[in-house]
């Protein structure tokens, strides 16, 4: 029949005929459908004058697979619907089909750079919402809750930025290879804020990534472990997702400087740094003075002179944001008696930030 119609219409390469071969009801596996398309591709007369088209439905849930295999078998055209709308279970989803090609480095020649705008239009026209886990377009498709997934994504982002910098490329234009994210969410107009979200399944990697990306706080590994346990407890208690803002509030409550330091000064001399400081101990204002190789060591000597057995195990410092006016963040790990505790200090002055961090750590005991 197809050959007789091609002859009747006198199809030519300049005036080709479209032969559309639908799977009106999907009744076979995708490979069988592809075999049928290949048979037609090989046996059609005037093949260069024919555009071989397919129209898969999704009754078996394999409409996209049928379309992809049909194209490999010789089809040149695919009919479908955005987000798989259509009768019964719908036609093949052109969004998934196109972005599967994009994920493999093939330009589908369909502009989905603002996928949420496309989705809103489709939902408005059809009065049918797109499922939150629909491939590429759902609300949760670029979101990881699992701790192992979050850790892999965090490391993948870091590797992506590093490899882009090593190649002298902007991260947005570098080849994409981040675990659990088959495409760069930015390619479809999504940002990275929702890539990692925190609930009771989340681990230290996701928590650390969120604090770093949203608040510029880079957590040392041991602090990641310590804070993750507190986040797990909070998530289990509430049974809810923890937002980035709530995560930051919890972090500040657990480790942030709460006040208690009075006036202080540092004098640099040939014998070291002389620190004079006023601070609160159990509600009583006390003062102390000590000389050491640096202000942090001097602070620990002042504390020890007041009966606090403290040893600074590690001190991590970085700027919270880029720019000369950024606050300095200090994360202090201290041993107080037989306990290991953490404190965070933030201040424009690096010295003040460090003294606050040590004081906050000691204040937890």
TrEMBL record:
Give the Pfam families listed for this entry.
HMGL-like, IPMS_D2, LeuA_dimer
Q: Which family does it belong to?
A: Belongs to the alpha-IPM synthase/homocitrate synthase family. LeuA type 2 subfamily.
Q: Cite the Pyruvate carboxyltransferase domain residue spans from the record.
A: 1-116
> This protein's superkingdom?
Bacteria
Q: Which PROSITE patterns match?
A: AIPM_HOMOCIT_SYNTH_2 (PS00816), PYR_CT (PS50991)
Q: What is this protein called?
A: 2-isopropylmalate synthase
Keyword Glycoprotein attached = no
What reaction does this catalyse?
A: 3-methyl-2-oxobutanoate + acetyl-CoA + H2O = (2S)-2-isopropylmalate + CoA + H(+)
């Amino acid at each position: 029949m197809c050959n007789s119609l091609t002859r009747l219409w006198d199809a030519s390469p300049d005036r080709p005929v479209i032969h559309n071969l639908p799977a009106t009801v999907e009744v076979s596996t995708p490979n069988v459908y592809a075999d049928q398309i290949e048979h037609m591709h090989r046996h059609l007369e005037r093949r260069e004058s024919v555009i071989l088209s397919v129209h898969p439905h999704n009754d078996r849930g394999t409409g996209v697979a049928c379309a992809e295999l049909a194209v490999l078998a010789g089809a040149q055209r695919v009919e479908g619907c955005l987000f798989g709308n259509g009768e019964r279970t719908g036609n093949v989803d052109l969004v998934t089909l196109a972005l599967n090609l994009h994920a493999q480095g093939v330009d589908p020649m369909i502009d989905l750079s603002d996928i949420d705008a496309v989705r809103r239009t489709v939902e408005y026209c059809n009065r049918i919402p797109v499922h939150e886990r629909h491939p590429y377009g759902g609300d949760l498709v670029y979101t990881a809750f699992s701790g192992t997934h979050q850790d892999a994504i965090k490391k993948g982002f870091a590797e992506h930025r590093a490899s882009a910098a090593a190649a002298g490329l902007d991260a947005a234009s570098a080849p994409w290879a981040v675990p659990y994210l088959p495409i760069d969410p930015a390619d479809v107009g999504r940002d990275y804020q929702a890539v990692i979200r925190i609930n009771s399944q989340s681990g230290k990697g996701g928590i650390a990534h969120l604090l770093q990306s949203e608040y510029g706080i880079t957590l040392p590994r041991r602090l990641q472990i310590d804070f993750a346990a507190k986040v797990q407890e909070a998530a289990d208690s509430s049974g809810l997702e923890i937002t980035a803002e709530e995560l930051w509030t919890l972090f500040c409550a657990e480790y942030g400087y709460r006040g208690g330091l009075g006036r202080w000064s540092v004098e640099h001399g040939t014998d070291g740094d002389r620190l004079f400081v006023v601070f609160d101990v159990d509600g009583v204002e006390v003062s102390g003075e000590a000389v050491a190789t640096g202000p942090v060591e001097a602070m620990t000597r002042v504390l020890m002179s007041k009966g606090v057995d403290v040893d600074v195990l590690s001190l991590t410092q970085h700027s919270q944001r880029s720019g000369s006016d950024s606050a300095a963040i200090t994360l202090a790990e201290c041993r107080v008696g037989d306990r290991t505790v953490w404190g965070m200090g933030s201040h424009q002055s690096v010295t003040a930030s460090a003294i606050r961090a040590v004081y906050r750590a000691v204040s937890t005991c």
